[in-house]
Amino acid sequence: MSDPLPPGPGTPGRPGPRRRGSTAPAVVALGGGHGLAASLSALRHVTDRLTAVVTVADDGGSSGRLRRELGVLPPGDLRMALSALCDDSEWGRTWRDVLQHRFDGDGELREHATGNLLISTLWQLLDDPVAGLDWVARLLGARGRVLPMAAVPLDIEADVLGLDPADPGRTVPVRGQVAVASTPGRVAAVRLVPGDPPVRPEVLRALQEADWVVLGPGSWFTSVLPHLMVPALAAALHGTRARRCVTLNLAVQPGETDGFSAEAHLEVLAAHAPELRLDAVLADPVAVEDPQALADVAASLGARLLLRQVSLGDGTPRHDALRLAAAYRDVFSSTYGDVQEAR
């Protein structure tokens, strides 16, 4: 169907072309859930040429119900990304709160997010997931665009160690994002079902035109790695002229990355995407036990390590948007200074 949004710069939800004299980079951020929302909350302070590419494998909660009942993409992670990009005005913040609101009570709407229902409504009316997301971005005055990673809903299947008490070394297949994210075992490998899903041309174009691609933070096996396992998306990521930055998490995640060192996260990326080359790895010193080991693994992937405090500093594994924005500015400027000196 025809695009419902008028073209040109200044249209909320649609990053415009580089302005004359502008030094703002075109950035594509890959991920899902709270991790992607954290990077977007920071990147919106760095550039207005921002595209979020969001995982579509959620099968739990409100998103899972709508996915099963309506046959739509799971809208929850897409909603969170849109909310992170809302205009910093009373209008934008109010509509963000509307999108994020969850119904209480004991009825069928319990725990549904208003934004999930709104997005699903637009998808049914417009019969175009990207057009529906663009309209919500327009409502929010979003500083960027939000796109689904694939054009169809995905399932994540993992091989998990430690689930068989009689044979702890045997891998057991676990299917579904919620099941994988909450498994008590140790995830050894993941794959997508279907294995070669269609990808929207808008995603491929955004990667082709990007200056930087940011991967992570987020749930490593269920939000970060899936982007590298969609063949068309992986090919575009490998072929883009853009530089690539991996943002590491502030803490390990039960089940998914229990016992992982910072460098193990990069080794998992390399194992699932052997052709992947990086330019920068961004990490908080509190999450790095051995900076030299991490720097060495980063270097093996072609990247330099940038250590910066990007957490709130209150003891919780949460990012500070302004600190993370300052770190991204350092990354994009390519003037790191001493890459192992935390600021």
UniProtKB/TrEMBL annotation:
Main location: cytoplasm
InterPro entries: CofD, CofD-like_dom_sf, Gluconeogen_factor
Domain of life assignment: Bacteria
Keywords on record: Cytoplasm
Subcellular location: Cytoplasm
Composition-biased stretches (Pro residues): 1-15
Gene3D superfamilies: CofD-like domains
Region (Disordered), start-end ranges: 1-25
Keyword Cytoplasm on entry: yes
Pfam families: CofD
Function: Required for morphogenesis under gluconeogenic growth conditions.
Family classification: Belongs to the gluconeogenesis factor family.
HAMAP family in the cross-refs: Gluconeogen_factor
Name the UniProt record assigns to this protein: Putative gluconeogenesis factor
The species this protein was found in: Kineococcus glutinatus
Taxonomic lineage: Bacteria, Bacillati, Actinomycetota, Actinomycetes, Kineosporiales
